[in-house]
Amino acid sequence: xxxxxxxxxxxxxxxxxxGCGAFGIQPDPPPPTAVPQATxxxxxxxxxxxxxxxxxxxxxxxxxxxxxxxxxxxxSLDTMSFMPLKHSDPFGGVIxxxxxxxxxxxxxxxxxxxxxxxxxxxxxxxRISVFRQTRSGEAWLxxxxxxxxxxxxxxxxxxxxxxxxxxSSVIK
Length: 172
Hints:
With 172 residues, the chain is α+β, with helices and mostly antiparallel strands.
């Protein structure tokens, strides 16, 4: 009888904890700058979770709970911070920006989607899609993008990611 009472006392707690996943609770996005992580052991060997499940970080900035390279992720957000962010998925490696009209040319607008494809900091781990539209009367019409624009954006993000990686190795 005493065991049944204990079970009935614990049952609501188990239901509440188990139900959190059904509401689509998502973790916070990664911080824009490196934040030192506290470990439970104090010896820098990782926390209790790492001991149970193993530390799978690659030392390339791919740790921190996201499935993509954190340097590419943060560099993408930093480089494109002038555009309005529409959606970001750090586990899938997709960052969508909404339409942006440059102040110097209000008759055109751009939209950018960034795909981070790898946990390693590599040039082929980043792909960018740029969409451009021009105004014709009241309607927006699709316009051609110069491939150099996409390449320049990729190079700017890769350069920023390398700077972040160098800065993080200096801090250690």
